[in-house]
Amino acid sequence: MADVKADLAQRLERVQGAMREQGVGSLVVYSSGQHNMLRMDQLFYLTDFRCIGPSVLLVPSSGPTRLLVTPVWELDRAREAAGVSEAKGVRAEDLAEAIRQEAHELPGPVALSGRDVISMGLAQELGIAGYADGESYADGELLIPSLAGTRTPVEVERVTKSAHIADAGFQTLCDAARVGMREYELHAEVEAAMQAAGSEDNFGLMGAGAHNVAIRPATERRLEPGDLIIGEITPCYQGHFAQLCRTFILGEPSDLQRQKFNMLLEAQDKGFEAAKPGLPSSGIAKAVNGVISAAGYAEYCRQPYMRTRGHGLGFGGVVPYDVTEDSSPVLQENMTFVIHPNQYIPETGYMMLGDTVVIEANGPRCLTETPRRLFWKS
Length: 378
Known about the structure:
By secondary structure, the chain is of the alpha+beta class. Helix content is 32%, strand content 20%. The two termini are 42 Å apart.
């Protein structure tokens, strides 16, 4: 098992090295306390602390960091985080003044990261350009993300564990699904199984019906014979997400359903072939869309029928972001993200297939271990 403290120390060293190279004296890293699986939490990335209120990490170009945390009673938990060297509890109404005082003592120039999630009130109090006149901060928004596109050993371990939790969740779906139960009851079974396996959270979507038009949250609808159940299962383990997408049928699949799901398997295989270090992430989407378009569904390879052929997952670096034909990030070893040729098909409705992978020298390796096939229960 990788050493968490050593791992975090190496992340900080890389960030501080980049700050010195770019002439940044200090970096103010702001987190709103609201977390999103498609957004990087830069404060968490450097501290292993997930705040629940607005908090700030003060990062000098060399030396220890300091954390300002709200609410005050979160201080003890913050001090237990592996990457926190010094922490101070601050009342929310005093945060702006505390930031000003701390930043004044830091070596300049001072850059800010977190403009996209900072409240307008706090931005005005701090005098951030675009919100108020007065003192401003240099733009430090991309400094940390530019270094965090690939996973560290600790992150890979956590994403792998999260992927295995997703596998356990889908196995529970297969075991528990039965005619007559409500969608939300099945969703609850999946959620309970994953929490028992160590999940801290889950971005879970589940739809069922004879002809699904899209993935959605579970409803009170009762499952019926022949339902095609689609699940997007995305558990979080120690701040890192993995995603598994699969299709399950309550009954024997028809030849048409088998045929269309095989199309998704071929599309994912082609996407995997395009997912190699040094290649642009757009190649994955082009490969997937090529297979589905060749089958006669080119018009369905764009919105509103589909959004992306995969995406990164937070709270660490989320590169390569959305995997589309227009995306540009170059794939690197140790990137982790989901590749999913999920697709609406006019004859069968929406079908799902997706796996979290890690990019290695020869291409992607699936971290999710659920077999890549169509599932059903007779």
